[in-house]
C-alpha cells in the first residue's frame, strides 16, 4: 500500500511540474498557448512556400507534399523541444534539487511530459489539416503514427536521462546540441524525400531513429507504405539499447548533481 501511495504521489508531482512548466513557458505572452500551435504552422508556411515548387510542385502532388511536410515538422519539433527541455531540466529546477528532496528523475520526466503536452496540442492541428485536405490515412497508418509517437518520446527520455546530469557539469552541451539539432534537421527527411539520396546514404540515415520515424511516418500516412519487419527490428533494437544505456548513465552521474549546481 505504501508503495502504491508513493507512486501516486510521484505521478501527481510530475503532473504538477509539467503543468507549471507549460504555464511559465507562455506566461506574459499576448497569444499564450496559441504559440504552441503557431510555431509549427509558421515554419510550415515558410518551408512549404520555398520547397513545394522544388520538390513536389502543383496539383495532388502539392497536397501530398504539404501533408508530409507538416507531419514531419510537428514530429521533429517534438523531438527538438523535448530533448532540449530534458537536458536543461535539472539546472532550471536547481532550487528543487538543492533545497528539498525531490527524486531527480521526476524533474526530468516532468519536463518531457510538458513537451508531450505541446505535441498533443499540435496533433489537433494535424487532424484538422488532414481533414481540410480531404485525406484519410488507413487504420494501420494511424496505429503506426501512434507507435512512432511513443518511440519518439522514448528517444527524448533516453537523451534527457543521459544529458540532464551531464549538463549540470558541462554547460556547453546546450550550445553543442543546438548546432547538432540544426545538422539533424537537414540530415532528416523533413522537407525532402529520402529517395532523392543514394541508396547507401539512405541506409546510413535510417540508422538515426528520428530519420527512420519521420521517413516511415510520411510513407505510412500518405502512401500506406510501411517498413519491412527487419527494419522495424533494427529500429526497435537501437531505441531499446539507447534507453538502457541512458538509464545506466543516469544512475552513474545523478549522485553528483546537487554539489555541481
Write the layout of secondary structure elements.
Layout: H1 2-25, H2 35-55, H3 59-92, H4 94-99, H5 104-132, H6 139-169, H7 173-187, H8 199-205, H9 209-223, H10 229-253, H11 257-260
Helix pairs in contact: 1-5, 2-3, 3-5, 3-6, 3-7, 3-9, 5-6, 6-9, 6-10
Please report which band the strand proportion falls in: under 5%, 5-15%, 15-25%, 25-35%, 35-45% or over 45%: under 5%
Whole-number count of domains: 1
**Mean pLDDT score, rounded?**
84
- Determine the N-to-C terminus distance: 35 Å
Give the structural class: mainly alpha
Gross geometry: globular
Fraction in helix: over 70%
| Count, helices | 11
Oligomer kind: single chain
Instruction: Profile the largest sheet.
Output: none
Low-confidence stretches: none
Radius of gyration: 19 Å
The sequence of SSEs as H and E is HHHHHHHHHHH
- DSSP summary, beta strand count: 0
Structural overview:
This protein has 261 residues and is mostly helical. It has one domain (2-260). 81% of the residues lie in helices and 0% in strands. Helix 1 crosses helix 5 (104-132), helix 3 packs antiparallel against helix 9 (209-223) and helix 6 (139-169) packs parallel to helix 10 (229-253). It is globular, with a radius of gyration of 19 Å.
Brief overview:
With 261 residues, the chain is mainly alpha-helical. The chain contains eleven helices and no strands.
Amino acid at each position: 500500500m505504501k508503495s502504491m501511495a508513493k507512486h501516486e504521489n510521484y505521478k501527481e508531482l510530475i503532473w504538477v511540474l509539467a503543468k507549471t512548466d507549460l504555464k511559465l513557458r507562455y506566461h506574459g505572452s499576448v497569444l499564450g498557448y496559441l504559440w504552441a500551435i503557431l510555431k509549427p504552422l509558421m515554419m510550415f508556411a515558410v518551408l512549404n512556400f520555398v520547397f513545394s515548387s522544388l520538390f513536389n510542385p502543383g496539383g495532388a502532388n502539392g497536397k501530398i507534399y504539404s501533408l508530409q511536410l507538416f507531419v514531419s515538422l510537428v514530429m521533429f519539433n517534438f523531438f527538438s523541444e523535448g530533448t532540449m527541455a530534458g537536458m536543461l531540466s535539472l539546472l532550471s529546477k536547481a532550487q528543487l534539487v538543492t533545497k528539498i528532496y525531490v527524486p531527480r528523475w521526476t524533474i526530468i520526466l516532468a519536463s518531457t511530459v510538458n513537451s508531450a503536452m505541446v505535441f498533443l496540442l499540435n496533433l489537433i492541428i494535424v487532424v484538422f489539416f488532414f481533414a481540410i485536405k480531404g485525406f484519410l490515412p488507413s487504420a494501420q497508418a494511424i496505429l503506426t503514427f501512434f507507435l512512432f509517437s511513443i518511440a519518439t518520446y522514448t528517444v527524448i527520455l533516453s537523451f534527457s536521462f543521459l544529458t540532464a546530469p551531464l549538463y549540470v557539469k558541462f554547460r556547453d552541451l546546450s550550445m553543442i546540441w543546438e548546432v547538432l539539432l540544426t545538422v539533424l534537421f537537414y540530415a532528416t527527411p523533413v522537407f525532402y524525400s529520402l529517395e532523392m539520396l543514394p541508396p547507401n546514404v539512405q541506409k546510413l540515415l535510417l540508422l538515426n531513429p528520428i530519420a527512420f520515424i519521420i521517413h516511415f511516418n510520411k510513407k505510412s500516412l500518405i502512401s500506406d507504405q510501411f517498413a519491412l519487419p527487419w527494419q522495424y527490428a533494427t529500429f526497435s533494437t537501437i531505441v531499446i539499447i539507447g534507453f538502457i544505456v541512458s538509464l545506466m548513465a543516469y544512475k552513474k552521474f545523478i549522485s553528483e548533481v546537487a554539489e555541481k549546481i
